[in-house]
Amino acid sequence: MKRFGMAIMTVAALLVAASFGARVNAGPADGSSISGKIYFKGKAPELRPISMDKDPVCASEQSGTVLPEDGRVNANGTLPNAFVYISKGTGNLTVKAPPNSVTLTQRGCIYQPHVLGVQVGQPLQVVTVDPTAHNIHVSANKGNRDWNVTQQPGTTSVNTKFSQPAVMIPVHCNIHPWMEAFIGVVANPYFAVTGDDGSFTIKNVPPGDYTLSVWTSTFGTQEHAVTVRAGESASADFTFTAAQ
């Protein structure tokens, strides 16, 4: 009887350990991710230098030639400023908006970054470090309100939130017409913006089948079907071509 009781306890312990191990390995997203690059094929657009002569303060803030971000191609034949995001899928994409703010900075009479992403309901703050006034004009798009406000040098940040997904929302300065940025407002945190090497990584993606979408301001949009498996990194590359 004693041996029988010990055997039952041993089996129970093994079952508990196995169950615990399964829960640990499963994790919220199992370390899954999506990575890739946004390639460009063909002749890159010729970018004309930005003239800031309209505001001598802006001109004095720059030490050299300033080129527009739209239409820029990286030295390695990839695209920066591409907004990559999961537009739909079978995985659990419901994630509460984080409380931390995303920042858009006016520096040297340029919006930095040129392209950024934010979740619906997540705070966005627009700050300025320039010694000249700016006018922040956020254009209405897909249920989000149109607003603009003048921001004087040294003043506090302008804060807002977006109520609806929208890819993309343009931001302009009505005082300095060359100033432009784009905000991707999405319902989940699974997005990225490519940089100087054209690469992106979207981390902690729940396993599932997805449509991965890419937006560019100059070369259009694309979609790519991708499957994410638990604990693995899925790959998805895109290629945009020059206009003929």
Describe it.
The protein is mainly beta and 244 residues long. The chain has two helices and 17 strands. The protein has two domains: 1-27; 28-241, Sandwich (Immunoglobulin-like), CATH 2.60.40. It has helices at 2-26, 56-61, and strands spanning 33-41, 83-89, 102-107, 110-112, 115-119, 124-128, 134-138, 147-151, 158-160, 166-173, 180-186, 191-193, 199-203, 208-216, 220-228, 233-235, 238-241.
The end-to-end span amounts to: 85 Å
Reading the helices and strands in chain order gives HEHEEEEEEEEEEEEEEEE
The side-by-side strand order for the widest beta sheet comes to 5-11-10-7-8
Total beta-strand segments: 17
* Radius of gyration using CA atoms only: 24 Å
Q: Mind telling me which CATH architecture of the largest domain this is?
A: Sandwich
The major β-sheet equals:
5 strands, mixed
- The CATH topology assignment of the largest domain is Immunoglobulin-like
Strand content: 35-45%
Structural domains: how many: 2
Helix-strand layout with pairing:
Elements: H1 2-26, E1 33-41, H2 56-61, E2 83-89, E3 102-107, E4 110-112, E5 115-119, E6 124-128, E7 134-138, E8 147-151, E9 158-160, E10 166-173, E11 180-186, E12 191-193, E13 199-203, E14 208-216, E15 220-228, E16 233-235, E17 238-241
Parallel strand pairs: 1-16, 1-17, 3-6, 5-11
Antiparallel strand pairs: 1-13, 2-12, 2-14, 3-4, 6-9, 7-8, 7-10, 10-11, 14-15
